[in-house]
């Protein structure tokens, strides 16, 4: 027997859990009968939640240890309270059941009428299924468990995307050089978010009406659409940030490459000047007489100091490098001014 169940024997009766494999995500479902109503009183609700959480943590550890696997952590415990209609205290004399106070963790519960007088209330964390006892205590459980599992799967799928996107945001703020990894990661998250949207759309269009209504009620109670929009907005901002940083890095690399090429060009120009000087002063022996290259350029070089020629080459190279470096900045500044409505003539 489960340790938690044994500790509360006589107060809780716990059925063996059933494992559901929802596209690789494991969910355990168990029926817990509350034999003493004190656990459902307002000041004991939080205690009951802690007990059920510990219960499923032990279920998880026991299940995976039996299969020689390391037990994963429990991400979420979703409770659905089964209440027979005739055993409830009536309120306002209108036949409406009085639900346990503070059972719903927040306002905004969603009501889904089911067949044979059953009603499902969806809320954050804790739900309620009210059924007519004439139809049996187990009425409606299977019809509610499957849509709950599907809603839980969609929620976990979305929160996984949210968690990874927050991790990428932290990587961006860390200043580490992970540009390529972030680009691939953000693209993958966009794909996963698109897959999540497809699954959600298929739920809306292809599922049975009752299944769809329960899923939509649960997700609406959990503010699923708001979370989806926040995740989508964060991914778009991440994409813009990554693209912006990639452009900055690319510009820096291009600038370094341009400077390197211009430096090589300057060295080439100086080398060319030195080669021309050497050619101008070179002599070729013809019939015992020394001959030098003719032409106005070589004559001018022979009449000018070699140091002057080298310095002139360096000055020309420096001017070319400065023009090449300042010209793109001037063009960028002019474009920015035009975008801001400031036209510089």
Secondary-structure element order, N to C = HEEEEHEEEEEEHHHHEEHH
Q: Order of strands in the sheet with the most strands? A: 5-10-9-8
Give the biggest beta sheet. Answer: 4 strands, mixed
- Helix/sheet category: alpha+beta
- Strand proportion, as a percent range, falls in 5-15%
The average pLDDT is 76
Number of helices: 8
Which regions are unreliable across 5 or more consecutive residues at pLDDT < 50? Answer: 87-96
Give the N-to-C terminal Cα separation: 86 Å
The backbone outline, from C-alpha atoms, is rod-shaped
Radius of gyration: 38 Å
Q: How many strands in all?
A: 12
Estimate percent helicity.
55-70%
What does this structure look like?
There is one protein chain. This protein is of the alpha+beta class. Among the domains are: 1-77, no CATH class; 256-342, no CATH class. Helices cover 59% and strands 13% of the residues. The protein contains eight helices and twelve strands. The strands form five sheets. The protein has a four-stranded mixed β-sheet. The protein has a two-stranded antiparallel sheet with strand order 1-4. It is rod-shaped and about 120 Å long. The N and C termini lie far apart (86 Å). The model is unreliable at 87-96 (pLDDT under 50).
């Amino acid at each position: 027997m489960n340790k938690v169940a044994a500790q509360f024997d006589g107060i809780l009766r716990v059925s063996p859990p059933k494992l559901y494999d929802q596209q690789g995500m494991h969910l355990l479902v168990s029926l817990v009968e509350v034999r003493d109503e004190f656990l459902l009183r307002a000041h004991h609700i939080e205690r009951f939640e802690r007990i059920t959480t510990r219960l499923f943590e032990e279920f998880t550890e026991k299940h995976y240890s039996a299969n020689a696997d390391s037990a994963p952590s429990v991400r979420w415990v979703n409770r659905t309270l089964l209440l027979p209609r005739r055993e409830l205290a009536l309120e306002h004399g209108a036949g409406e059941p009085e639900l346990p106070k503070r059972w719903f963790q927040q306002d905004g519960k969603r009501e889904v009428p089911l067949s044979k007088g059953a009603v499902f209330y969806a809320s954050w964390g804790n739900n309620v299924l009210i059924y007519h006892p004439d139809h049996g205590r187990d009425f409606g459980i299977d019809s509610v468990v499957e849509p709950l599992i599907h809603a839980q799967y969609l929620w976990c799928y979305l929160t996984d995307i949210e968690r990874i996107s927050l991790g990428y945001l932290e990587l961006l703020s860390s200043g580490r050089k992970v540009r390529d990894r972030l680009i691939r990661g953000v693209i993958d998250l966009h794909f996963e978010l698109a897959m999540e949207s497809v699954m959600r759309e298929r739920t809306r269009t292809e599922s049975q009406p009752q299944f769809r209504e329960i899923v939509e009620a649960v997700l609406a109670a959990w503010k699923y659409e708001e979370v989806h929009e926040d995740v989508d907005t964060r991914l778009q901002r991440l994409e813009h940030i990554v693209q912006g940083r990639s452009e900055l890095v690319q510009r820096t690399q291009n600038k370094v490459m341009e400077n390197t090429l211009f430096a090589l060009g300057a060295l080439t120009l100086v080398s060319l000047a030195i080669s021309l000087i050497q050619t101008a002063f070179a002599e070729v022996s013809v019939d015992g007489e020394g001959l030098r290259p003719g032409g106005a350029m070589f004559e001018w070089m022979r009449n000018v100091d070699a140091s002057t020629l080298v310095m002139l080459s360096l000055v020309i190279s420096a001017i070319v490098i400065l023009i090449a470096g300042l010209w793109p900045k001037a063009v960028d500044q002019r474009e920015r001014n035009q975008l801001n409505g400031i036209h510089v003539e």
